[in-house]
Amino acid sequence: MILQRIGIPIYLQVKDFVLEKVKSGEYQPGFKIPTERELSTQLGISRNTVSAAYKELLLEGVLEARQGRGTFVKVASDDAGHEVSGSRRGRLIKIIDDAMAKVVELGFTVDQFAAIASIRAIEKTQTVKELRVAVVDCAAEYIQRFISQIGQNANVCFESVILSELISGKISIDLLQVCDVVITTLEHQTVVIGLMGNANKVIAVATVPNLEAVIKLARLPANTKIAIVARTQEFKEKLEKLLERAMINQLDLVLIQSDDRKEIHSLIENYNVIIVSEERERLVNQIAADHQEVITFYYEIDRGSLNQVMMKLVSQAV
Fold first, then answer.
1. Which terminus of the chain is less hemmed in, N or C, by CB atoms within 10 Å?
2. For 171-192, how does the pLDDT look when each residue is reduced to its tens digit (9 = 90+)?
3. Which fold has domain 211-297?
4. Tens-digit pLDDT profile for residues 71-108
5. Which string of DSSP letters, residue by residue, matches the chain?
């Protein structure tokens, strides 16, 4: 299901659509996927949009293009030397090969290049660990997701900062000033930069909601009563804004902020649909009845922005 007004780039929705087909097994390894024209007609979108999604999946090695035959789900190969044209690993090898050619021109041997590159990588990794990174957003639940994403790629010291507490003065702006990098969303970029007085340390990232959750919500009947089990009011407010942009505004949302297992169980028993933050997912799944649908909702940093964050952290590590 492609949602034109949701605020998520359409090509990313197409990408997720294809990935879901692969994960579910509908598109098996070696399966020839629809042509760009066929899928664009099926989804009612432009061919260029489908092309952009396919290109990313080709670069990530999920799909492979076969000359004159079409695009296929990549089949895993035991041949370590085999590279799909345009794959991320193939591009990396080309960069390394180009770098080796240049260092040989400088008079170094390939062994020396490998040794120096290894030492430099270790130095960079260690320096990145010493960085202090503030992550600023309106809801604690979303901050934790952002930290988890970045933490999978870089072992840094994180500071979780709630925007409202920063504005009210409960958290001093000095905390951001002493951090090496400040990460916030495009939505809050102007406010954060205004509070800091400069933009030198700030990285504004694009975020995308859990598309699977949004699609499930879009399919619910009008006036469906839904319990939201989360820690903050901001979690509910941001979800409501998203649903409004996507024109999914016929749902009756009630926030449940309790931490008590028995109380939560009592409060959700009259709801057939329950939205949960990631931190409450396990608890609610344990106590929900079989007839109740539990939908986990979150925002996460998109792939392009996450790559920009990693580039910034590496460049900061001197």
1. C
2. 999 999 999 999 999 999 999 9
3. Rossmann fold (3.40.50)
4. 999 886 544 444 444 556 777 888 899 999 999 999 99
5. ---TTSSS-HHHHHHHHHHHHHHHTSS-TTPBPPPHHHHHHHHTS-HHHHHHHHHHHHHTTSEEEETTTEEEEPPP-S-TT---TT-HHHHHHHHHHHHHHHHHHTT--HHHHHHHHHHHHHHHHHHHHT-EEEEEES-HHHHHHHHHHHHTT---EEEEEEHHHHHHTSS-HHHHHHSSEEEEETTTHHHHHHHHS--TTEEEE-EEE-HHHHHHHHTSPTT-EEEEE-S-HHHHHHHHHHHHHTT----EEEEE----HHHHHHHHTT-SEEEE-HHHHHHHHHHS-TTPEEEE--EEE-HHHHHHHHHHHHHH--
